Amino acid sequence: MKVEEIKPYSSEGGKARQVEEMFDSIAPAYDFMNRAMTLGIDRWWRRVAVKMVGRSKPRRILDVATGTGDFAIGLYDDIKPDAVVGIDLSQGMLDVARQKIAKRGLGDAITVQQGDCLELPFGDGEFDAVTVAFGVRNFEHLLQGYRQMCRVLKPGGVLCVIELSTPRNRVVRWFYDIYTLHIIPWFGALKSHDRSAYRYLPQSIAAVPQGDDMLAIMREAGFNNCMVKRMTLGTCSIYFANA
After folding, report:
1. Among candidate residues 57, 56, 62, the one with its CA nearest the CA of residue 153
2. By CB neighbour count within 10 A (0-12 exposed, 13-18 middle, 19+ buried), where does 170 fall?
């Protein structure tokens, strides 16, 4: 089954609407669950990605599926661009992001808004870098989302995507499956009271294109110099490309 067909709640209805509803539901517990599920390693993955983006010294950055704003804030802290713009479907997640941004006094540098990655409300070539952290598997149409991100990038601008992935090693995969298919849904339901959201997580990870398959979609969308960096025994992949 294609990742676009994996939905949080029901096979009926559009994926985008269900993803929005899911993240609105789990927004209060999202940051805690991220830390717990990855044992805090997600912070390291973001730091590695930020360093990769920072090499091109971008002045305007778009963070797609910005969620609660962790990656947007990390990009600003390390790179100090003129502006970071975050966009997300979920108002609940954006409410948490705005609280973090306000607490840090970064409202002039980081702005967030509600919107759909499939119809980005920005002009062609408006950004030097586009980033997505753990979000592309939630796109209703993956290729269309990549095409939109390529459109808003300046020629030569950089794309950086962090996404969870499935390990190749059979022994690691055995432990990984027990953890993602059984422990995470149970713990997620306990903390967020939304069992479906944390059943959707491993299903969407398993279905999302990975490695060379993801790079092929990026190239079809118009990107070049596409590469992937595998992290932590293959449980995370960082994709990087130029417009």
Report:
1. 62
2. exposed
| Whole-model pTM over 0.85 | yes
> Is the Cα dihedral 189, 65, 19, 218 positive or negative?
negative
d(CA 16, CA 73): 25
Query: How many angstroms separate the CA atoms of 30 and 48, rounded?
Result: 21
Dist. CA 53–CA 47, nearest whole Å: 10
SS3 10: coil
pLDDT tens, residue by residue, 146-204:
999 999 999 999 999 999 998 888 888 787 777 777 676 666 566 656 666 678 888 88
Residues 6+ away with beta carbon under 8 Å from 13:
7
CA–CA separation, 99 vs 93, rounded Å?
10
Q: What are phi and psi of 11, to 5 degrees?
A: -75, -15
Q: How far is CA 147 from CA 13, 153, 183, 221, in A?
A: 24, 10, 36, 5
